[in-house]
Amino acid sequence: MFLNDEEKRMLNGEMGIVPQKCMEYLQDEGEAAGAECLIDLDGTADFHTPMTAMSYRYQFGIEELRKLVESGARFKVPVFANKSPFLEGKVTCVHGWKGCGMAPHNEEEYHERCMQKEFMDLYRKMGMMTIHSCDYYLASTYWPTKGQHCAWNESSALPWVNAVLGARSNIDGNFASAFLGKAPAYGFHLDENRYATVYVTSQRTISTDLEYDLFGFAVGEECGLAVPAFANMSRPTTTQLLKLHSAMNTGGSIHMYHIPGTTPEAPDMEYAFHGQKPRQEYMVDDARLKKAYETLNYHTGDDVDMVSLGCPHMTVVDLMYLARKLEGKKAKVPFWIMTIPWLYHIAREQGYLEIFEAAGANLMTGTCPAAMGGVPEGVKVLAVDSAKQSYYITGRYPDDDRRLQVCYGTQDDCIEAALTGKWRGEWR
Amino acid sequence: MKKIRIKGRREFGGVVEAEALVSPKPLEGFANVDSMQGYVTERNHPLFKVCYTGKVLVYPSPRGSGGFMGFGIGAVPAAFVHTEGNALSIACALCAHIPSMTDFETDPMTVIETGDMVLVNADEGYIEITKKNG
After folding, report:
1. Residues A333/A306, Cβ–Cβ less than 8 Å
2. Measuring CA to CA, how many Å separate B36 from each of A140, A145, B39, B41, B76?
3. Which of A21, A42, A367, B100 is least enclosed, having the fewest CB within 10 Å?
4. Closest chain B residue by Cα to residue A34
5. What pLDDT was estimated at residue B90?
6. Is the pLDDT confidence value at B134 over 80?
7. Beta-ladder partners of B39
């Protein structure tokens, strides 16, 4: 991979140990990707904190970070924190930890250790905005614009930056890219990789939240790493896009797609394919959606011990609708609602938090059950309305004597389960 | 014994020979891999709890979360051989620092079976397969 003179000086260590470590990673990443050069970012970046590198082999310690900050170093582009900081492979909640009923997350000492204040203070000095959410971009008040080069790192967020905004990113947000404002020029940074390759239609017009989730999971499983164009979709809501994106990146790894007439790089189907013929065509019929529904349901009975909503984290509109549905109701089983930390204060101000608390639901931020490492002790059946959460959470319980079952369905199915302790969801 | 050589592109360099473990289904990390045990914990996955440590892990493509790099830490394979890749397989290779190859002239998934011996020469850009029943 070509490096310019300044990049070579960084690699040689002439500009200090941190630029050197960062450039080593970017060079190895670029070589691995077959990139010809690095490009300068002009959009935004995010990464998982507190890691100072994507791979631990390129990390440097907090002492080096402190020296860097004291020297006046800043991130080159606006940078946001994805999810709560990692501690030993898990991320705890920013809010709602006290009432989550799950050790060690509900312990003050553990919570404080998890939040990694020392690291976060340094990152904030460098310009990072510590939103701590998988869909932080919905609260960030600032988006990259069409064509801008970014470095984002969250599988469910990649379709947002590429397909919805028309900005450009691979799933490679990390300290090095954020600090140096550079990323290897490959994948979705390049025009030729952004065109549709696979044509996907469906028997029914994809319209409901559940259909977007199931369709996304099925398309992910069928299309692998392709760039699909979707032929039979309603105009999706923001909530439905979140479902589509997270489900596509659970069933598969789809970071770019087109909905002709809706997404910015596809005024029509022909344009989406750049005049080329589709490499493959898929029909997602009702039987395929039902198959996804059955995969995501993993339970033997109708008793539910716990409900978790908000994967990806709820938007303010989701919170408003949910508060409306829960007003005056009372949950029978533990009920977690996940949102973006910056929305916790809004939820309080708007009166949603009070409604949730009165309904026995716990509003939590910055994390999710799968990211926390599981659910409280004793929970045997969890109900969710998210393909992503359903498909990942059982991975935390692989042993026969400790399996977790999952009921998967609509948000209303989950609310009913929370209020009654019974699962009534079924394929419709 | 007959050897089959396939040219490919290196993601990360190195040379190693080990027995192949083939995943017919794309792999997924994050909560669906146990890095310390070296196995997949994804329900319905054909490699559920089958240890990949020390094997040449052969798979079609990465999928899911950025936590795919879980395959590249802890009880890692001897090498990665996969049909297609993206930033997920790259980050994983850069965590593991073991030979990793993709973009082959012939899809290795059509040639390699679990138990075959596979020499991964990422430095020179090829794999060489010795069939177990060859």
Report:
1. yes
2. 36, 41, 8, 12, 9
3. A42
4. B11
5. 98
6. no
7. B34
CB contact under 8 A, A187 and B31: no
Please say whether the beta carbons of B18 and B130 come within 8 A. Answer: no
Q: Is B65 among the catalytic positions?
A: yes
Cβ-defined contact of B86 to A187 (cutoff 8 Å) = yes
The answer to whether domain A5-189 has CATH 3.30.499 is yes
Q: Amino acid letter at B101?
A: M
Active-site option among B35, B61, B65, B89 = B65
Structure tokens at A414: 């989950």
Mean pLDDT within A205-219: 98
Is A428 a residue whose pLDDT tops 90? no
Dihedral of CA B108/B114/B117/B121: which sign?
positive
| Cα nearest neighbour of A220 on chain B | B63
Classify B3-130 by CATH class.
alpha beta
Q: Which of A21, A54, A55, A152 to mutate to test the interface with B (most CBs of B within 10 A)?
A: A55
Cα torsion angle, A165, A167, A171, A175, sign: negative
Contact A152, A45 (CB under 8 A): yes
Helix (DSSP H) and strand (DSSP E) numbers for chain A: 17, 15
Residue among A322, A329, A370 at smallest CA distance from A343: A322
**Token pair 């089983």: residue:** A333
- Taking the domains of chain B in order of start, what are their residue ranges? 3-130
The answer to whether the beta carbons of residues A371 and A83 sit under 8 Å apart is: yes
- The whole-angstrom separation of Cα A225 and Cα B63 is 8
Torsion, Cα A206 A208 A210 A211, to 10 degrees, reads -10
Tell me the shortest Cα–Cα distance from B63 to chain A, in angstroms: 5
Q: What is the pLDDT of residue A280?
A: 97
Contact A239, A317 (CB under 8 A): yes
Domain-wise residue ranges, chain A: 5-189, 195-294, 297-420
